[in-house]
Amino acid sequence: MMATLQVRIDDDLKKSSDSLFAGLGLDTPTAIRIFLTMAQEHNGFPFSIAHRREQSESKQAMEDARNHTNLYGPYHSAKDAVNAMLED
């Protein structure tokens, strides 16, 4: 006997998932069956679920971008940046 599983998801998520799985030669229901089978084998999620810890430097850069501060880096001009890259 087979059960039916109905899930409401965002239209864009459905379309992008269908495309992703099609690229792997699968349809979405098959991908979901694989996920559920692997969850049973692992007795939980078949991958780690955790908050990503951002590096302090990356976190500061994202905060600067949100606040529109320190956007120009250590160089005063593009020419200075290029010259720094060309230095041995």
Automatic annotation (TrEMBL):
It comes from the Bacteria. InterPro entries: Arc_rbn_hlx_hlx, RelB/DinJ. GO terms for biological process: DNA-templated transcription; regulation of DNA-templated transcription. Transmembrane segments: none annotated. Keywords: Toxin-antitoxin system. Belongs to the RelB/DinJ antitoxin family. This is DNA-damage-inducible protein J.
